[in-house]
Each structure stands twice: as C-alpha cells, then as structure tokens.
Task: inverse folding
C-alpha cells in the first residue's frame, strides 16, 4: 500500500523531460510540479537535461546576433533597399 | 492627404533609417532564420511596411524599436507559414520521426538509455557562448537538421508575442501537440550540441 502510494509520485525520465518542456510554455498542475520536483531530486541525468534545455532556450531567444554574420557587408543591401523606396516627389 | 513636404520628410527619414539600421536588422534576421537571402528579403519588406505604416509611427517609440517589432512580426509570419507547409504533415512527423527519437533516447520504461543520458552539466553554457562564431555556426547547423515544423515551433515560442494557446490556435494544433513538438525538437537539439560542441 505504501509502495503504491509512493509510486503515484514517481514519473519516468521521459515524462520528466516532457514536463520540463511543457513548463516552459504553460503552468503545470500542482501535482505535476511536485512529481517533477521529486524526480529531479533523484535523477541527475534529468537535472542535467533541465540545465541544458534552459541554456538552449536562452540561445534561441537571444538577441545577441553580433557574431552570426560578422563577415557580411550590408552596404549592397542598403543600396538595394534605397532604390526600392518610393521616389521623393 | 500628404503634401509634398510631408512626403519629402518621410522619404528622408526612412532613408536615414535604412542607412542606420539595415545592418543590425539584417544580423538579427539572419540569426533568427539562418538564411541570408530570406533575411535580406525580410529586412527589405520591413522598410516597405515602415513606409506604408509611417503614419502610425508618430514618434511614439524609438525608430529602432518600431522597425524591430515589424521585422519580428514578419519573421513570426514566416515561421507560421513554414509550419503550415503541406509537404509533410506535422502529425506524421511527430508520430514518425518523433516516436523514433523517443525510442532512441528512452527504453520501454521511459528511462534514459545509458549511452543517451545527459552526463553532466555543460561547462561554460551561458549566453556568452553566442559571442563565439564557431558555436553560433554549430547551433545553426543543429537547427537546420530539425524537421521544419519543429524548428518553426521552437522559433515561434520566442518570436510570437502571443501566449501558447493563441499560438496553437493560429497553427491549428493542440497545446499538447505543441509542447510535444518542442520536446522532441529539444531532445534532438540537445543531442546535436552535446556531440558537436560539449563533448
């Protein structure tokens, strides 16, 4: 009986990683919150997954684009755009 | 009806914006789309929209902020269209490639397979890493390997200012499917970065 009660709170790693992603877009139910917390206390790989998932979110969300295209000269693009602007009357 | 002087002012202002902001807008668009030609088109479109909507600007915010909000909307639109592409149904991708991914990473009990376990925290994994152009290139490469629906969904999570329920409504999917797609995308991305950078 105690074992069955304890099992209610145990989730798989697959479920834990799903909850980590779900949490980033919507609030979890309190039961899911507790289950995830318990799992992360017991499971190092999932704890690492959470850290890494958050890092990826930051990179995707980042506005730091200075090095994405450092070698590209945008002068031709500027000129092209200016040419397509409606002429001054 | 705009008079001649207004039109000349508007043209001069927009031209000065083109000179001042093209580079920073382009770099951001390129960062968000990994596609140079697409980024150029989006930036060009942004300025055309700015001309058409100039009367709504009214100096209420900084020009840069306003131009970025137009560009952001256009990039989000691009990803919404990508998601709705008919070539491969997102449902097939989720149940096909998605399920295969799950089986690769987890056993029948939902435990990590030994060789797939995230072994340790990534060292130096903070936002500064994006300053390293080699890392940026790896991140873009890993993104390109994702199915188009998944990378679109992941980008929209941050680009679209709407909440999850509204994003899902526009894409025509349930919130469950939405986070399932994000989950599968994140599993694949994480693995790709682990293999190509952190290990």
Result:
């Amino acid at each position: 009986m105690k074992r069955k009660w304890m099992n209610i709170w145990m989730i798989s790693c697959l479920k834990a990683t799903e909850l980590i992603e779900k949490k980033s877009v919507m609030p979890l139910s309190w039961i899911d919150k507790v289950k995830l917390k318990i799992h992360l206390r017991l499971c190092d790989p999932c704890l690492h997954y959470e850290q890494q998932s958050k890092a990826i979110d930051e990179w995707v969300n980042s506005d730091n684009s200075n090095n994405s295209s450092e070698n590209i000269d945008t002068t031709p693009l500027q000129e092209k755009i200016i040419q397509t602007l409606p002429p001054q009357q | 009806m705009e008079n001649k002087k207004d039109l000349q002012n508007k043209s001069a202002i927009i031209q000065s914006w083109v000179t001042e902001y093209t580079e920073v807008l382009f770099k951001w668009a390129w960062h968000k789309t990994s596609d140079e030609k697409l980024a150029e088109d989006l930036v060009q479109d942004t300025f055309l929209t700015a001309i058409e909507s100039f009367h709504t600007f009214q100096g209420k915010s900084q020009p840069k902020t306003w131009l970025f909000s137009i560009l952001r909307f256009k990039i989000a639109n691009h990803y919404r269209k990508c998601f709705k592409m008919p070539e491969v149904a997102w449902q097939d991708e989720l149940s096909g490639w998605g399920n295969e991914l799950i089986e690769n990473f987890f056993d029948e009990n939902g435990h990590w397979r030994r060789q797939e376990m995230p072994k340790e925290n990534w060292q130096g994994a903070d936002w500064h890493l994006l300053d390293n152009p080699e890392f940026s290139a790896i991140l873009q490469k890993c993104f390109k390997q994702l199915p188009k629906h998944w990378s679109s969904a992941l980008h929209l999570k941050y680009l679209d200012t709407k909440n999850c329920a509204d994003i899902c409504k526009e894409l025509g999917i349930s919130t469950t499917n939405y986070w399932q797609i994000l989950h599968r995308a994140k599993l694949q991305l994480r693995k790709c970065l682990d293999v190509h950078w952190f290990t």
Summary: Chain B touches chain A through 66 residues (CB under 8 Å). Residues 76 and 158 of chain B are 9 Å apart (CA to CA). Chain B has nine helices and no strands.
